[in-house]
Amino acid sequence: MSTHKGGASRPQLILAATPPPEQRPLLTRHDFARLELACFEQLDLLNPMQPFVRAKLEEARIVSGNEIAETVATLGSIVRYRIEDRMLERRLLQLDNRHAPNGQYLSVLTPIGLALLGRSTGDLCEAELFNGAKLTIRIALIEHQPEAEIRRRVKSRQQDELPDDPGPEAA
Q1: Under 8 Å between Cβ of 124 and 136
Q2: What is the reported pLDDT for 1?
Q3: 35, 52, 68, 136: which one has the fewest Cβ atoms less than 10 Å from its Cβ?
């Protein structure tokens, strides 16, 4: 869309509505920083994924790794999801966009991987493909999340460090 003033044509900026906070994806500070760096270092300006990654970064809510729920897909998470009405798939989300022949990894620098990042178990999300087609994806389960595993290990160590002998106070 353009406006004409004095014979000149200027593009008009049309801002998309920002979804309400509860519908925006959650990213940890670490995942946000890694994705932002990848957007500018791994994706050139002509890469069709760059606008999608930028949009994800702009709409995301940022939280610390300690605050993110274990039901949210983060980098390194193992996610079970279903595209449309197809069979359930299980993939590990990774940042690297190199091809893995065994099919167990899914790069977040692909439309489906990016759609899953920051979404929770039970969420329904859309992945827009390069040809404009859209896929509907339902997240069935987050099997493993690195941040939740770290919290479990820290808690376990803290419990292991508690003394078994209550000392003279118990007598």
Answers
A1: yes
A2: 44
A3: 136
